[in-house]
C-alpha cells in the first residue's frame, strides 16, 4: 500500500468520528487535505458541521467544497480536530 493510500485510509477513518452539529478543526498537509475532500462530499450530502481551518490553503480548499467555516474567536471550543502527523 502506498503512502497516499495510507493517508486516504486515515482520512476515511477520521471521518467516521464526525457527527452532525460538530465543530471541527481542519489541519494542513496532504492527510488533512484528503480528509477535507471527504468531508466536502459529506457536507454536500447534507452533513451539518462547521469547521475552523488552520491555514489559508485549508480555508481555500474547504471553501471550494462548500464546507461552512468559522474562526476560533467565534467558536473557541472544538469537538474534533483532524491533522496529519
What does this structure look like?
By secondary structure, this protein is an alpha/beta fold. The chain has a single domain (about 5-70), classed as Rossmann fold (3-Layer(aba) Sandwich). It contains 3 helices and 3 strands, in the order αβαβαβ. The chain has a 3-stranded parallel sheet. The protein is globular.
Which terms would index this structure?
Rossmann fold, 3-stranded parallel β-sheet, globular, single chain, 85 residues
Brief digest:
It contains three helices and three strands, in the order H-E-H-E-H-E. The protein is α/β, with parallel strands linked by helices and 85 residues long.
Distance between the termini: 18 Å
Total strands? 3
Identify the CATH class.
Alpha Beta
Calculate the mean pLDDT score and round it. 97
Structural class: alpha/beta
The percentage helix is 40-55%
Strand content: 5-15%
Provide the low-confidence segments as ranges: none
Strands across the major sheet, in which order? 2-1-3
Total number of helical segments? 3
Q: Return the CATH architecture.
A: 3-Layer(aba) Sandwich
